[in-house]
Specification:
By secondary structure, this protein is of the alpha+beta class. The strands form 7 sheets. It has a 5-stranded antiparallel β-sheet with strand order 2-1-5-4-3. Strands 7-6-10-9-8 form a 5-stranded antiparallel β-sheet. Strands 12-11-15-14-13 form a 5-stranded antiparallel β-sheet.
């Protein structure tokens, strides 16, 4: 017997397959393959090879090919094809001559690229036979490109691209895609649309697949020319959609817009950042994402750019404000680049949400207030100082400089020299106008008119100014000036200055933090340890719906935990131990409406290590809770009758069986089928059938106790679980009551519907020890009741068990 796959094809149809071939393809015998097209079992990646017929494979050498097994797994193989019989007559193309294929499974051999490369010459000849471009990459450089690739890129020399980076054959507009890395592209299972560039500088649209090889840093690129297909607008949209799929994997928001500012694509990160789904923004103007006044001015910016006056918007990062769907603004960092597709221009913006960075900076506002107090205190102290306190001045943290009536510096402490970038001794004797110089604006580089101010008696309590240091760099300074009087005679002035560069940055951060606190969609409040509310943002007030403003000064227990006052003490205990607490609970708004809340609490520790304040973040999750309840109900109850469905029935049956085992008391299960229901459904219609099922459910529920379970398993099948029953006699009484109830005609909207019930009964433990046994035996008894003429009940007997 031949161990390889032998296959005979006639006109592309398989007419014979040997046993080894059937097993190789995952079939029990040849019948699963005979009569099928050979193309059906060829892997899709290799299907284009057979577009001109099977006879293209005919030759003396084995060719690489990939098949697909019955279970969908690939089979790497090498194939040699020969015409069967005498072959085609002279002038005949061979399409009608049977072809015999000899197929060897080389899956294991092909698992390692090293095995493929054992014969370099053979590998190159096989690659050059491929109709599509094949290119090998090692450590970012091109090591091999086949004839199809050379032809596609119009390189006359075979080795023109060898050793060059991948970017050299990619159009510059798509360098950003390649810069994502070949690893990222190799993870794409679908073909990736891209644009190559030929040796003549022409763009070539291609579909590309990247495969990572076994060798580290080695990849194989397969590409085919799709320029003809991309001549239609539909193909362009397809390429953009594929690229969007890749862009959706990055963490930054990426938005593409055309020259008019109309949004063309909006990746998932952008959806998360702006709180808007892509379907709601694509096709709309970019101003939708901007607060005022930027939204109004945006179209003007684009018009200026198209007219050649807005090139500065490209290639640099800027910090702007964005507008979320809920109306809140947030800080973002934006970088814009331009992409050209033919004559059309697209703009791509890469967006980073820098809210957290800004929020962290806002904490420095407290430091600013402390510095302001210190400056005021130290300025008053300096006014009372005299020249004999030089030692004290030298140790001061703020810069202190004295000048005479001619504005010449008479003393300067080390702090002043450090702020202005001078050596301490170098300052004394210099004119103040030479040391104090403007650092920005139209006066940049010029001296501050200290002498003129001194002569005119102009002094500043506190002024902020950008000064130039000795090396030309700028420093944000806060300074105050006061006169120096000696026995009533003015002898000069003293200047106190401080480097406030960090403080200015902190002020800006704190302003943004206040805006975030006021505009965040989450409710935030701050409480003292005794529960008194000290701060509350508008979002929390919106959740509570107060009639008279935020509940400042009220007890958080009364406002939020009125349903369970003990939660506040539990929250404080958790914060003392773990420093964090999360909880979901039901509360009431101030107007009395119930709502579900998710609470996250964090402590603000006091200096002695105790909890000084408690920060609560509250989210209204009422809709989510209601949705969960609705889902739980739909999962466990029949939507037509309101009875427990099959899922809840099995759960109740398991509980009843466990309860019977614990108590030793019998329980019973009834399996009920409505006789004649199909006739009612067929003659009176489905609406009448539904009414009858609803009426039957009500009657069954009225025939049993409250602790028993009536369930609908589907169609006209019902069950009754009797958790405790006084043996077969008690079950029989209930069964007869159900039969009598069902025999009463049903009023179906003015028409009469008649059914009866066939009931099978299984009692535990006589008829089974498990839920499965009881259910199976009750079902068998029900079918026996039908066999006995319907409208009766039958208990399970061993002879009813299926053979």
């Amino acid at each position: 017997m031949v161990p390889d796959f032998l296959c005979l094809c006639d006109g592309g149809v398989i007419t014979y397959v040997n046993g080894a071939g059937a097993r190789m393809m995952g079939y029990e015998d040849a019948r699963g393959l005979v009569g099928r097209l050979l193309a059906d079992i060829i892997h899709p990646d290799y299907a284009p090879l057979l577009e001109d017929g099977v006879d293209v494979l005919v030759g003396d050498e084995y060719l690489p090919l990939m098949f697909t097994r019955a279970d969908g797994s690939p089979v790497e193989a090498e194939v040699r094809a020969q015409f069967f019989g005498d072959g085609p007559a002279e002038g005949q193309d061979g399409a009608d001559v049977p072809v015999l294929l000899h197929v060897r499974d080389i899956t294991e051999r092909m698992r390692s690229v090293n095995h493929v490369l054992e014969s370099e010459q053979r590998y190159r000849s096989l690659v050059n036979l491929a109709l599509d471009m094949i290119c090998l990459i090692s450590d970012g450089a091109i090591t091999l490109i086949n004839l199809a690739g050379q032809k596609l890129l119009e390189h006359a020399e075979p080795d023109a691209l060898i050793g060059r980076p991948v970017r050299d054959m990619v159009h510059p507009d798509y360098h950003a895609v390649v810069d994502l890395g070949l690893d990222a592209l190799a993870e794409e299972t679908a073909l990736v649309p891209l644009m190559f560039i030929t040796a003549n500088g022409e763009a070539v649209d291609v579909e590309m697949r990247v495969r990572a090889l076994a060798q580290a840093g080695a990849y194989m690129i397969e590409a085919r020319d799709i320029r003809a297909r991309l001549r239609s607008a539909e193909a362009v949209r397809e390429r953009e959609a594929r690229l969007q799929g890749i862009l959706d994997t990055v963490a930054e928001g990426i938005i593409t817009a055309d020259e008019r500012g109309i949004i063309q694509s909006f990746n998932r990160a952008a959806e998360r950042i702006f709180g808007r789904p892509a379907k709601d923004v694509v096709g709309r103007n970019l101003s939708l994402l901007m607060p005022q006044p930027d939204a109004v001015r945006h179209d003007g910016y684009l018009e200026a750019y198209r007219g050649g006056g807005g090139g500065a918007m490209l290639g640099r990062s800027r910090e702007l404000s964005g507008l979320r769907a809920d109306g809140t603004t947030f800080p973002l960092e934006l970088n814009i680049s331009e992409l050209r597709l033919g004559k059309a221009r697209l703009f791509t913006g890469i967006i980073r949400d820098i809210t957290e960075r800004k929020r962290a900076e806002e904490a420095e506002q407290r430091y600013k207030r402390e510095l302001e107090v210190q400056v005021e205190e130290q300025t008053r102290d300096i006014r009372r100082m005299s020249r004999q306190f030089q030692g004290i001045l030298d140790s001061a943290g703020d810069g202190i400089i004295g000048v005479d009536l001619d504005a010449v510096i008479t003393f300067a402490n080390p702090a002043a020299a450090a702020v202005l970038g001078w050596g301490g001794p170098d300052l004394v004797g210099r004119p103040a106008d030479e040391v104090f110089r403007y650092a920005e604006g139209p006066k940049a580089g010029r001296g501050v008119p200290v002498r003129a101010a001194l002569r005119r008696g102009i002094f500043n309590e506190r002024t902020e100014l950008m000064l130039a240091r000795a090396d030309g760099s700028a420093v944000a300074a806060e300074y105050g000036s006061s006169p120096i009087d000696d026995e009533g005679e003015r002898t000069g002035a003293v200047v106190v200055l401080r480097d406030i560069t960090e403080r200015k940055a902190a002020e800006e951060r704190l302003r943004v933090a206040a805006a975030v606190f006021d505009t965040t969609i989450e409710g935030v409040l701050v409480c003292a340890p005794d529960g008194r509310i000290t701060m509350a943002n508008p979002a929390f007030s919106a959740i509570l719906r107060p009639t008279g403003g935020a509940p400042l000064g009220d007890s958080v227990v009364e406002v939020l935990f009125a349903e369970d006052p003990a939660l506040w003490a539990k929250l404080l205990d958790a914060l003392r131990v773990g420093g964090h607490w999360e909880h979901e609970f039901w509360s009431h708004r101030l107007d009395g409406e119930a709502f579900a809340a998710r609470l996250v609490a964090s402590p603000v520790m006091a200096g002695d290590g105790t909890v000084g304040s408690v920060v609560l973040v509250v989210n209204d999750i009422t809709q989510r809770k209601r949705d969960e309840e609705r889902i739980r109900y739909q999962a466990n109850y029949d939507m037509l009758t309101g009875l427990p469905n099959r899922t809840l029935f099995h759960d109740r049956l398991d509980q009843a069986v466990r309860g019977a085992r614990r108590s030793g008391q019998p329980m019973a299960l009834m399996f009920i089928d409505l006789d004649g229901f199909k006739a009612v459904n067929d003659t009176l219609g489905h609406e009448a059938g539904d009414q009858l099922l609803q009426g039957a459910a009500q009657r069954l529920s009225q025939c049993v106790r409250d602790n028993d379970t009536v369930a609908r398993l589907g169609g006209d099948e019902f069950t009754v679980i009797m958790t405790t029953v006084s043996g077969a006699e008690g079950a029989a009484l209930v069964a007869q009551r159900i039969i009598n109830s069902l025999e009463v005609p049903f009023d179906l909207g003015g028409r009469v519907g008649r059914v009866s019930g066939s009931i099978g009964i299984a009692v535990m433990p006589e008829h089974g020890e498990s839920a499965e046994d009881i259910l199976r035996n009750a079902d068998a008894a029900m079918y026996h009741a039908k066999d006995q003429g319907k409208a009766n009940y039958q208990f399970y007997r061993p002879e009813l068990a299926p053979s």
